[in-house]
Amino acid sequence: MTPNAVFFFAAGLGTRMRPLTAKTPKPLIKVGQTTLIDHAIDLADEAGIGTKAANIHYLAEQLLPVLSGRNVSVSDERTRLLETGGGLRKALPLLPPGPIFTMNTDAVWTGMNPFEQLRLAWDPARMDALLLLIPPKNAIGHQAAGDFLSDGGRLTRGPGHVYSGAQIIRPEGLHNIRDDVFSLNLLWDSMIVRGRLFGVVHHGKWCDVGRPESLPLAEGMLKGAKDV
To answer: What pTM did the predictor assign?
Structure first.
């Protein structure tokens, strides 16, 4: 089954981006002339993804009109922030059954559309999730070590490629987790045990826009891609 829905993670507090996020939610920080959330939604629209949803929490009243104007349904976490796993599970009623895309909203991309690349590599017979990975040399502004090692595309934990924040995932396993607030890492770990977590390397560059000093790096990356 080919996914045709995406969930955007847009509920974070943006603490690493302070002071820019003191009065503005991180998804509304601009990279060039476009906000981070619009960069992400534009990629989904270019890929023809039909259903779009996002979660909200911090300074949500600023995000609501933006998401409404882009035909993005809202999962409201203003009363309680649920982390990635709990947030996605809460939003499932807004999404069709079966595999879906998810994307963080604190990065910008060059090269092939990440949704298109994931769609082309998706193999539902072998995969419960397919993560889009970045070679460390192409992970601009990213300060942590790599996240996953790949053996023929099958993933285990280790300091290899960086997780980009974009994936295709079967979310059904979220219902087996008892916690209300939890990370998607719990679901990924169960997939690793079964040999069902896979990755594909992105054809292009990626900038982690998590800190104020990342903004000029992201803008320079995008400008360089346009100048080629």
So the answer is: 0.95
